[in-house]
Amino acid sequence: MAGVLIVEDDQPLRDLLRDALEKRRYTVITAADGREAINKFRPSVVDLVITDLLMPEEDGLKVIMHVKEMSPDTKIIAISGGGKAGPGSYLSIAKALGAKYTYSKPFSPAELIQKVRELLG
Amino acid sequence: MENGLIIKIVSAEATMKVTVSEMLKQAARIFDSEFFNDFDSFRSSLSKESECIAVIDCTEKYFEWQEVLARIKDYDENLYTIIIVSENERETIGRILEAGAYDVITKGSLSMIGRSVIRLIPFLDDRKKLKELSHEKYLADHIVNNSRSMISIINRSYCYEKVNKTFCLNHNSPDGNFVGMTLEDVWGRENFRSNIKKHIDTCFSGKVVYYQAFFKTPAWGKRYYEVIFKPITDKKGVVTHALAETYDVTDLKLREQAVSEIEWEFSNLETNLPIGFFRSDKNGKLLHVNKAFLRIMDMKSEEEAIGKSISSFYCEKDLFSHHRKTIIEEGRSSFGRVSLLSAEEREVFCRISAFVVRDGSGNMIYLDGAIEDYTREVELEKQLLQSKKLDTIGLLAGGIAHDFNTILTTIYGYSEMSLEGLKQGTEAYSNIRKIVQAVGRARTLTNQMLTFSRQVGQEKISVRVADIILETTDFMRPTIPAGIELKEEIKAPDAYVSADPTQLYRVFLNLIKNAIEAIDERIGSITVSLDVISSDKIKSEILNNKPLPEYAVISFTDNGQGMDKSMTERIFEPFFSANKGGKGTGLGLSVVYGIISEVDGDINVKSKKGEGTTIEVYIPVAERPSLNDKASPSKANILIVPATDNEAKVISIALTNSGYNVKSTDPVGQWIKMTRDADVIIVLDNLRDTNTTEIAFELEKNSVDKCLLLISDFDSWMAEEKNLPSGSGRTNLFKPVSLKEIIFSLDSLLNNRS
User: How many CB pairs under 8 A join A and B?
Assistant: First the structure.
């Protein structure tokens, strides 16, 4: 089954996304910040990355750049909580860097899962 | 002794001396006589200071008249000499007179000598006068030459005929011979033409001329001279010359100028300094105030102020007596930021400094002082404090909202997961639905908090303000209570501003809702007006950032309950509500503040308790979008459903102005046909005539495979979401939406499609 890397510094949300994806039988790897995500990312295992943008250590944009550099085919979904410069601008950068979909918190996790299914076929 | 006249009689004969002196006495005049036996002793007695008449006896051979007269002439040509000759020399008389004798008397007619002397007296007086005259002339010359004025006599050819010493000295030429030189030679062409000619010409016409002027002199630089020209006339009354008196008054003038400058500066200071001066009697009753005082206290004339007690200006009357006491005890004192009430009942913050004026015996007679207006500073400080406060709250609110959105996602996600396994109608299902609804409300709140804290960012486009106002009032009108009238006054129909139309719509909605809530009795009127004002006509307190040239002013006026000052200062704080009983969310106006700050605008609140409120929104005027922009190829074809909804119209305006080709339709009749040309269909759920779910189904049923952007209320959407047909090209947005979000979603949809 396809592998998904969840990068989110808020543990309950990370757990929620993991629960929801595991329920759909995806292989889930989680990371609590950007640096951990970069360390854990393996293109052979991960087919899709869901990443928060504003995080301690390295932020989500760094994660997206790293992923795209290592493996241009890996799908990315970016989520943001409405940060200092506004969610729109952060999310639009994420989009420009290659995120397929972006979500502004609060979003419907069910809808996000639907997009995961769509992207991973 | 009369005239101090001495008769000197020279004769070798004693009898002759006696006879002559006897004869003179007979002439009824008393003369001092001196007798000399020989010519040499007579000669040595002569002195030029005293007048004398010499009577010389030449009857004997002692004195030869020729020799006598020659020697006398040698000494003093003008000495009157009477020669006595013997009878037989009568024929020589003519020759003697010719030789210079005054008179010749023969020995036989000695009695004539008295008459001869008496006849001489007037001549002697004249001589004396002449002497005196020459002394006077000497004195006059002395005066003229030592005068501090330059004195000169000038003829009609503008030539100097006479100048005094001062004139020479002043021209750096002590021995200078100015006679014959012209005025132009001496003073130069420029001075002559500009300072001299017309004046001296007036003098030549017979008038005394007095004037002062600056002269440029080669020797002394720029000098200021006082000049008097007096005409000098001949016997016929024709002016032949001018007497010029020129006095250097440069130093005097400079001193005078300095003094008058100081005086002027002081009166200028008193008039123009923003410091109000006052003099009051010992009890504080005003006797004199300056203009600044009147200005500060909103009074028109000094009469208005005089007689009033200073205490009458104090907001706290007791404070004045306390201040007065301190001033009297300490002699002088000052008090910062005293709250005063102007004649127009405006609160003025002043620094008051005053001191006691005493008479010679130490009794207090006056209380003098100054007031300085700090109102503007106090107001600005308050404003600064307020905006700092709002910034701090904004930062806090933004931070909270950010974290809160993450938490809400988790709450919502688990609710969603739980709902999946539950049947509709069960208690657990309906409970979790309520949790979802609460998440929806919480989301609205966090969105407002982010908007207030200006962390959302706006997509700014040039938009006609009147369009948005009319959509807002059109939307509100059916919902407001029947007793409230809502009017528009559009004075600037073509005013454009650079802003997000959906956010402006939000601002106007909030302000109208706020006005409705302010009308307690449910009867009243609300006026929304639009005008364009140049920034120099706007009070500087309102636009404290550097103002732009023109502002669109949108004002919302209600005749509701109004607010007091402490309230108007705080209405933009989040969760501060002017309404009793907690109507509204308490975030509405803070959102307005956030949005307007984002477009470099400002808000001014004017309110009076019991009379109503006017909220003025100032937004810099933007250029009207040019036709070229519209001619550029359209980004995509958008169909908006429904067409009649006001918010949909605003979105339509926003997208059209952003370069999209926008059409709209209501979901009735053959509307599906309209979808053929659309790249993206935007569906707005307004709970009245459109429901996003139904439309999504209708599109699926008609096999319309287009990108869909569904805009709905979060919680109403939650209830329907899981029933939506699955589709790849679909994005959901929740109200309130911003143009930025819409454009971002449209771009995503169009990119993913291609």
Answer: 104
